[in-house]
């Protein structure tokens, strides 16, 4: 497994693999890897990728000024071992200075899907995400890139960016990997105290019950939202948002007529967790 620290070396390696006839997969991450990330490596293989690159880059431009950039968990040695175990071909592991020139002044912005939900709670977040993913596409030159449904809005925003900017990359979205008690795997789960960790599965329990009620015929979004809000509050969580929106356009839906996504962001202690379920 190669560990590649510069864009030039990454591009040269990608071109060589392509000359050799490889299909290249990319899994962009911020590291502190878990089974959710590794499931994306497996998804690359199912898409026919013969070489899979995992990028590990804690992207400063997607963090707000009062967010957790400085304390974001990092453990490269552990990440490296996990990638070796999954037969990853290379880790692309650039420094911030390699990814951003000190006078960088070019941004990629998506202006519709990135507005609600996390876009409203975290101003500038998606501009950082789309910009860094565009750079990663240009560095790794993948045929396929896999993202997690865990970040449902992010996946839609990136799919839109790739389409609008003609990136020759197939965007694949893989299902959410969860702990046995339903909590979605996340690098940020490490921040949770024992009490918070015990309470946090309330998010998915409530979302699952909302999905069940929807399947049983409930179509009023507010009714489902109120139920989930009360359940999370009862568990000691502080809701940032709970919304039901179209699965494709992220338009709000008050009466749920078509495929929808119910998305939650909630704080347990200082830790902001996100999760979602599809209402089909
Ligand atoms: P992150 O390192 O948190 O930026 O996540 C990198 C990628 O892994 C993103 O595409 C996430 O959506 C995906 N991901 C994170 N957690 C999970 C999970 N529990 N299940 C599936 N994919 C995930």
Chemical compounds bound to the protein: adenosine monophosphate
Largest sheet: 6 strands, parallel
Shape designation: globular
Identify the strand order in the major beta sheet: 1-4-3-2-5-6
Number of helices: 10
What order do the helices and strands follow? EHEHEHEHHHEHEHHHEEE
Q: Name the poorly predicted regions.
A: none
Q: Mean of residue pLDDT?
A: 98
The number of E-state strands comes to 9
Query: What is the helix fraction of residues, given as a range?
Result: 25-40%
First-residue to last-residue Cα separation: 41 Å
What are the salient characteristics of this protein?
280 residues, alpha/beta, three-stranded antiparallel beta sheet, 10 helices, 9 strands, globular, binds adenosine monophosphate
Short structural description:
The protein is built from ten helices and nine strands. By secondary structure, the protein is an alpha/beta fold.
